[in-house]
Amino acid sequence: MTLRTIPREVILGLVIIALCGVIAARFPNFVRPSNLLSVATDTAPLIMLALGQFAVIVTRCIDLSVAANLALTGMICALLNVAMPGFPMGLMLPLALVVGAGLGAINGVLVWKVGIPPIVVTLGTMTVFRGIIFLLSGGSWVNAHEMSASFTQFPRIPVLGIELLAWIAVIAVLGVYLLVTRTALGRAFYAVGGNPHAAVYTGIDVGRTQFLAFVLSGALAGMTGYLWVARYAVAYVEIANGFELDVVAACVIGGVAIAGGAGSVGGVVLGALFLGVIKNALPVVNISPFWQLAISGTAIIIAVALNARSNRPKGRIILKKAEHSHEPV
Amino acid sequence: MSLSDLHADMTEPRRAPRTIPDRLTSPLRRNLLGWESLLLIVGIAIFILNAFASPYFLSAWSLSDATFNFTEKAMIAFAMALLIVAGEIDLSVASIIALASTAMGAAATAGAGTPVLVLIGLGTGLLCGAFNGTLVTRLGLPSIVVTIGTMSLFRGISYIVLGDGAYRGYPTSFQWFGQGYVFWVISFEFVLFAVLAVIFGLLLHKTNFGRAVYAVGNNPTAALFSGIRVARVKMTLFLLTGLMSGVAAICLTARLGSTRPSIALGMELEVVTMVVLGGVSILGGAGSIPGVVIAAFVLGLVTFGLGLLNVPGIVMSIFTGALLIGVIALPRLIAKWRR
User: Which InterPro entries does the protein's record reference (chain A) (predicted)?
Assistant: First the structure.
């Protein structure tokens, strides 16, 4: 068994374990179950956003507006909570989901019905969403004391000793896993990304599939938006600024092909956890947090180089490209 | 693997196979009848609206100040336009500015003079461009991911060096690059912008290299078989983009007089917006420098006009984003209704 035939998920899993091992050699406290659990919980937002991004990238699109969507939906939830403290918490999460899905649908319609390239669409909506947050909030912060206790406590409710935020991420992972492996829509995601022409001939509506991927990405971003604002108990214009790059990075590190058609849920989760472990380990091993940006940048470059080096298709390619693939020149 | 591959098949199943535009009419004239004229009308409309909206707008010094809103971004946008026409993209330009500015700041603190600072700025830009170009052309990696990675890496190095500190204390002669005036209200930056516009315009529209850029963007395989060294063209364009980011770093650093690691944060998106608004196809293979020049003026006027009306910067981004989507959506929607 050569290095190339080992699945990406296994390599990534071993790298994460090795990383934890190296840290544990000097700082054993890092690998205490309670600490590992808090690392995983901290990474939950990244995992949820990366799942949506994964669906979008698999269909050959990209969604740069996820962080802005998260911030806008989070602000809407926070303002709603300030205006109507009695708004039932059970409805807040579905509301965030719907708002986020709506914002994602805007991206999707522009890609599907107007035919604008996704990178342009989401670049535009990203700035528009941020601007709308400013208009809604007047540029001021919504602080912890303005939010109701039930609003901020929701993601921290312990269920079987684990925060609700982590459980929601687990449900999202399972949901997206079932969606892409067990449903026709999931197959369509891969088919559209693997070969759009062939997908059309098999009766798949390419634009509609991409639209639905954007809706999924938006819904997950919106839901995370509420959880983010509630967990950190603050909402302002710049929350999660630049987070979209972490999200894309998690996908790339997880082995999702940026050209579409390949990738797996397991890889994405491990890619996000890899970034999460690094982020949480830096303060523990006394490295300035200012190193984090350079480290994740290096990780992205190494990951994409590894992606390109292995000729074996990552994940599942359902409809192989009939025409010869473009050789790098 | 390039950006054009990423999107090439996006909408194709619903239209005819990719058409290779024939170049019987000069690209300049053809474009002037289409996209550029639409953009010019938008620009003039914004100019007139601004003149009515604020009494301070129509003064020579106001308009001169307005140019600083776009000159640095436009310098990078020219090189980025060529890169996007060739089917690649560089999202690390703002981070190159941060790294080049940090390098210059460190040198200035060590007592380097203005000529050395300029060389360091340009050199850092070239090195970063070479790094991007090598990863894309030698290893065949998709440029969008590579430059998302180097975007973190380059700015990350600035953060490692500077942390939450800042470099100040640039020589007075150095500050002329950002604050100097060549003649009356004509700033050095504006002159540089104009000269670079002409140089890049000639490079793209009047030289063999420019033809090669279009060819690579339209069909890299065909370009290779027609004797164009595709990898070398792309490498040159990454070097150019890095160099222009270095130039912009010199101007911006000189204008601000200080360097923080967060300098020019998010500027890459404004540069890409400018290029796309200028009519350059994000799929590669089409676009013109005059379009980018007009887009630079339009964006500069929008920002400045709204600024005079005391509209906060973040609200301006709504206009920028809506303008980007609107200007691209409009011709497509019109074409749809005609059908």
Answer: ABC_transp_permease
Q: What is the pLDDT of residues A272-329, one digit of tens each?
A: 999 888 888 888 777 777 888 888 788 888 888 877 765 444 455 555 443 334 434 3
Q: Are B156 and A297 an interchain contact pair (Cβ–Cβ within 8 Å)?
A: yes
Cβ contact, residue pair A131, B318, below 8 Å: yes
Cβ distance B283 to A117 less than 8 Å, yes or no, reads yes
**Rounded distance, CA A302 to CA B146, Å?**
9
All residues at 6 or more sequence positions from A20 whose CB lies less than 8 Å from its CB, including other chains: A30, A31, A36, A277
Choose, out of A127, A209, A292, the residue to mutate when testing the contact with B (most B CBs < 10 Å).
Answer: A127
CATH architecture of A35-309: Orthogonal Bundle (1.10)
> What pTM was computed for the model?
0.81
Test A117 with B273 for CB contact under 8 angstroms. no
In a domain, residue B14? The reply is: no
| Cβ pair B115, A267 in contact under 8 A | no
Domain assignment present for B263:
yes
Residues of B in Cβ contact (< 8 Å) with A288? 160, 163
B231 chain-A contacts, CB cut-off 8 A: 329
Domain of B145, in residue numbers: 27-46+60-334
Lowest mean pLDDT among A63-72, A277-286, B119-128, B144-153: A277-286
Three-class SS state of B51: helix
